[in-house]
Design brief:
Number of strands: 8
Structural class: alpha+beta
Number of helices: 3
Strand order of the largest sheet: 4-1-7
Radius of gyration: 26 Å
Helix content: 10-25%
Amino acid sequence: GSLYSVDMKYGRATGLFAETAGLNPKGKPLRDDVSTGGGMIYSDAVYANGTPNTTYISCSDYYSGFLYDYLPTKEYVYDASYVKLREISFGYSLPTKLISKTPFSKVNISIVGRNLWIIHKNIPYYDPEYSLSAGNIQGVADGAYPATRTLGFNLSIGF
């Protein structure tokens, strides 16, 4: 299926992601003020008379106005496929000979890791399993908190 990322749209519009930083064609930081040589340029735009655009605008104007309002949402639609190592567990059962003088019939010890590795995904900055848009709002990535990796210990005792 496909996934529409509101997070990508707003993240780029507000300058959160790496592609909103860097240098402009003049070699100045994009986020610097236009008066000091910074800013963005619509390089594929032309003036009404057909000459190439040479006017720089502030990075915030470019990303907030242009990305919020005018870019088609198709830019933020991604293939939702992914491959992930969601959970892995390594365990050991103590031999019955070792626990024969205890009240336990079995003892298992294990280490568990969750959300360990996104092997492949098609959407940047996003874990496809984490989003506030769950339930009936399928196919929309909106308001995702950063995913966490967890490591744990499990002790299972049988009597």
